[in-house]
Amino acid sequence: MPPSPQTPPGRADKVLHAQLTFTNGDVLMASDWAGGGAYEGMKGFSVTLDYESEQEAERIFAGLADGGHVLVPLQPSFFAKAFGMVIDRFGTPWMVSGGAITA
């Protein structure tokens, strides 16, 4: 955050706005916790990533799982050739799928 009289004490090193633009044009935006109390962690949501191929889903899932915690191993499901759930090393919950199954 830029120095400012409105910046709460202890927050000067936090990220106000961040943007990650993927090669396909998709955008993911984020910021650090700015609440007044203790941060309780991320809960009640997942970030979902869906890929055309099972192989790309496997590659991304492996990267997110590195240092993280796998909730549901990447495996076939009724809607995709690969689906899994993982919490990355930063505590972000993810659902990853690839190779959609169409009727």
From TrEMBL:
Write down the superkingdom of origin.
Answer: Bacteria
Q: What is this protein called?
A: VOC family protein
Annotated source species: Taklimakanibacter albus
